[in-house]
Amino acid sequence: MKKIGLSTQIFLGLALGALMGYVVPDLAGHLKPFGDAFLRMIKMIVVPLIFSTLVMGIAGTGDFKKLGRLGGKAIIWFEFATTIALAIGLFVMNVTEPGVGVPISAAVGTEEAAAAGQHSIDMVQYVLHIIPTNVVDAAARQDMLQIIFFACFFGVAVAHIGEKGTLIVNFCQSVAEAMFKVTNYVMHFAPLGVFAMIAYTVGSYGITMLIPLGKLILSVAGATALFIAVVATIASVFTKINFFHLILALKDILFLAFSTASSEAALPGAMKRLHRLGVPEATVTFVMPTGYSFNLDGSTLYSSAGILFIAQLYGIAMPIEQQLLVMVTLMLSTKGIAGVPGAGIIVVAATAAAFNLPTEGVAILLGIDRILDMIRTICNVCGNCMATVVVSCWEKELNKDKFNRLYKEFREEKL
């Protein structure tokens, strides 16, 4: 008998939890401690995982004198695309508001967060607060903004001390790998945690609170389509190559990514297809793997959408200046760990805590994470393929005529 996958188990946990909350709400109300236990396990991973991966990423690429021309151009495009992904995620969520109007804002422990969100923000004090006076205290409080600030400075310093920093980078790599393994362990408790949180939530607030989940899926799908269209248009103008033809040439690869929800499964085929379309192998083999750590646009878009969805779900206002800070935070915290199973949820949980949002909303997101994962995976793969072609054109390795000729040959062969 085939073993049921974790994503299927989580979905079953969502369905059974909703059913139990609807049928026996009194009993479901006693399950909250199990959901809280799962959330606490998620939180315990956050600080060491994000700190170690940030230091690894910055120490490895932060010394721009040692970066090749190819790496520098790739990173510039990665950051440009990531910013667009975050902005579109927030824009679509502000327009569609899938979490607004759900009677869940009276949840225990959210009144204080809602009140905090309603206060006017002193931007000077907010920016000063990002600078930690004691990094150990910041870690103990899980103040993600302060941890990221220190990790960035620390990573740059490690990158500039040469061989002496190798020991620190290796240590951070070992810590990160250990925390990835811990993440895998914790995610095995996800079905029980989702079951308990959904049962408690539906039992307390009614079955109507599940409606926003369908709206969220449609919002994320729409935001992903908009992102791909915007980036393809910008890339087409920049390179004089029709990137919509590139997407058509990759459609079977993108379908594989969507159906498996695995960027890794689509990587070999995507690299081979790009080489077939004229992108030099050296560029493909450098930019694509690098992008899998630094340019997972779908994961960053999902993270921004998830944060705003949790705020809307619990009736917490997030003014534009606070949303801009969310963008900056996610731009850094999603680097290096977005491809790890369960890491997207950890980033959302950490960022939610940093902005005084209830982390209980993370368990609700987990229930539909498989569907959202399929959507963000197709965005990740497409974004990396477009980035590789952009860098190749930027390096003057691929021109319009060459691409059009190879694309025409490819289409004729497929027909």
From TrEMBL:
Pfam families: SDF. It comes from the Bacteria. The chain crosses the membrane at residues 37-62, 74-93, 144-161, 189-211, 217-241, 301-320. It is found in: Cell membrane. Gene3D superfamilies: Sodium:dicarboxylate symporter (1.10.3860.10). InterPro entries: Na-dicarboxylate_symporter, Na-dicarboxylate_symporter_CS, Na:dicarbo_symporter_sf. Keywords: Cell membrane, Membrane, Symport, Transmembrane, Transmembrane helix, Transport. It is a multi-pass membrane protein. Its main location: membrane. This is Dicarboxylate/amino acid:cation symporter. It comes from Megasphaera hexanoica.
